Amino acid sequence: MAETRKKLAEIDPVWSRIQTEAQQAVAEEPLLGGLIHSSVLHHGTLECALAYRTALKLTSGEMSEQLIREICDMAYTHAPELAQDARADIAAVYDRDPACHRFLQPLLFFKGFQALQAYRVANWLWQTGRRDMAYFFQMRTSETFGVDIHPAARIGRGIMIDHAHSIVIGETAVVGDNVSMLHSVTLGGTGKEEEDRHPKIGNGVLIGAGAKVLGNIRIGECSRIAAGSVVLHDVPPKSTVAGVPAKVVGEAGCAQPSLTMDQILKSSL
User: Fold this and answer.
1) Helices (H) and strands (E) in the chain, counts
2) Rg, Å, the chain Cα set
3) How far apart are alpha carbons 103 and 14 in whole angstroms?
4) CA distances from 207 to 60, 161, 173, 178, 258 (A)
5) What is the largest CA-CA distance in the chain?
6) Where are the alpha helices (DSSP H) in the chain?
7) Are strands 247-251 and 239-242 parallel, antiparallel or unpaired?
């Protein structure tokens, strides 16, 4: 058993750590044994566990858990990058969220992570032409998690969505790698135009709680958007914007604001 774990850790360190943490969690809280065994320890790979958890959350009277799980399994088989993105997302949550103490937590308990993985499958469905099914995944993700991400939106890896209540990301939005956002963020349009109408968020951006970023605008890499801001114009890289409407109030204050999660506007800005 020890040799098997060692090999797994070398091949897939994220999944190996999740399994070790799951065993520890069962020992500490036996009443969660059924949940943890069915969600983690019963599965041989993270891909299988993700498919199981997504299906369990999105199932309804309109579509069975088994059918949703088969769709997720197909997505992870044909697009292995989806599970690699999930691994990066787990690491991002662990690194940036002070309330996250185990890799196990996002998989079991954090709706921001879970909603993001459901979106990733929906995006795969959209890209492969199964758009009605993609809309179904979007609908159930919104109903279940309160997170509404259009399946055509493009989202990078290493994403952390903290608390994740009332997140809205529109059809033509683009979110780069290593982006962090808090609850009630909207990446939306400004009217009924049907062309490219949503924001483009650069790598390493931090978006504060309640911020609204509207229109086909560009948010430069490693910028900060203060909580409650309404952003209507392009934002230069490595800067901080705040207000309604938002204005540049200074530099970002650090090289990677999405990693440090520092949202305080210094008096010197």
Assistant:
1) 10, 15
2) 19
3) 8
4) 32, 10, 14, 12, 8
5) 59
6) 2-11, 13-28, 33-36, 46-58, 65-78, 81-96, 104-109, 111-127, 131-145, 257-260
7) antiparallel
> Which two structure tokens, joined as six digits, stand for 10?
């070398």
Three-class secondary structure of residue 167 per DSSP: strand
Could you tell me the two tokens for 252?
């970002």
Is pLDDT above 70 for 242? yes
**Token reading at 256:** 């990677």
- Which residue in 85, 14, 92 sits closest to 259, CA to CA? 92
pLDDT digits (tens, 9 = 90+) for 79-88: 999 999 999 9
Angle at 45 between CA 41 and CA 50, to 5 degrees: 85
Question: Residue 217 has which token pair?
Answer: 């605008």
248-256 long-range contacts, Cβ below 8 Å, gap at least 24? Answer: 252/222, 252/223, 252/224, 253/224, 255/222, 256/178, 256/204, 256/222
The answer to whether 13 and 88 have CB atoms below 8 angstroms apart is no
Q: What is the mean pLDDT of residues 195-210?
A: 97
Distance CA 18, CA 8 (A): 11
* 76-111 pLDDT, tens digit each: 999 999 999 999 999 999 999 999 999 999 999 999
Q: Both tokens of residue 18?
A: 């999740």
How many of the other CB atoms lie within 10 Å of CB of 28?
8
> Computed from CA positions of residues 179, 182, 183, 189, in that sequence, does the dihedral angle turn out positive or negative?
negative
